[in-house]
Design brief:
Blueprint (H helix, E strand, L loop, with lengths): L7 E4 L8 H15 L2 H4 L6 H19 L5 H15 L9 H10 L10 H9 L3 E6 L3 H10 L6 E6 H4 L6 H10 L7 E5 L2 H9 L4 E5 L13 E2 L10
Length: about 230
């Protein structure tokens, strides 16, 4: 499968192990009713609010990953832009909502199917690591509350070292920190640009995680729908 034997596996966190969409939806639904947005938007269905937020959040995260905006701007605009898109004055968005979201969401523990089983299996054969573009406090809470910390020898967070995936520097930092090399490592992640191309651009093999059924995947790299499928390659 791979040209060189592998000893170290590097995982992305959000959208790969930790089910961001499910955890965020659960948190946003709770807060939607807690803050009486159902009255403000005159609907008992939180779906439009959550869908609009998710779209804005993904757009702003893409800009953040490219270094086009900072953490504070991302966090401020994702909810303000959502209010504006729903026809509400963004200045009316309650700032405490954002703080509650940041406090509650990382404590959610929904993982993708077979996460613990797969990591437990792989840990017996490889040394495991995390590389995340997430924010330090959120990443730390997620891996602790979800009981993921037990699997990883190192956790590299972009905010801490000041380099974002897909920049080569974060991958070189991660493998140097792990005392290994790119040729003996594999990156597993969902984001084709940040995780996959970022890794391959420094000579590291990669496996694309894409749980979407019927998706059109690139033909030049291994792709899995379920984490348990990693057993086929590793």
């Amino acid at each position: 499968m791979f040209a060189h034997p592998k000893e170290h596996l590097f995982f992305d966190l959000d959208h790969t192990l930790w089910d961001f969409e499910r955890n965020a939806r659960e948190t946003l639904t709770e807060l939607f009713f807690s803050y009486r947005f159902d009255k403000l938007l005159e609907t008992s269905d939180a779906s439009a609010f959550i869908t609009t937020y998710n779209r804005n959040n993904q757009r702003l995260w893409a800009a953040y990953n490219l270094g086009q905006l900072d953490k504070t701007t991302l966090r401020k605009r994702r909810f303000a832009d959502t209010f504006a898109e729903l026809g509400l004055n963004p200045e009316l968005f309650p700032l405490q909502f954002e703080q509650d979201y940041l406090s509650i969401c990382p404590q959610k523990t929904h993982l993708f199917p077979n996460t613990h089983e797969t990591l437990g299996y792989l840990k017996e054969k490889y040394t495991l690591h995390l590389i995340s573009n997430g924010f330090r406090e959120a990443c730390t809470t997620k891996i602790q509350c979800s009981n993921l910390v037990q699997y990883f020898d190192s956790v590299v967070i972009s905010e801490v070292i000041g380099i974002l995936k897909p920049h080569p520097g974060i991958f070189h930092y991660a493998v140097t920190n792990a005392r290994t090399s790119v040729t003996h490592s594999v990156m597993i992640g969902d984001n084709l640009e940040a995780d996959i191309e970022g890794a391959r651009n420094v000579g590291m093999d990669a496996i694309h995680f894409n749980p979407a059924p019927g998706a059109n995947d690139p033909t030049d790299l291994p792709t899995i729908r379920d984490l348990s499928e990693l057993r086929r390659f590793l």
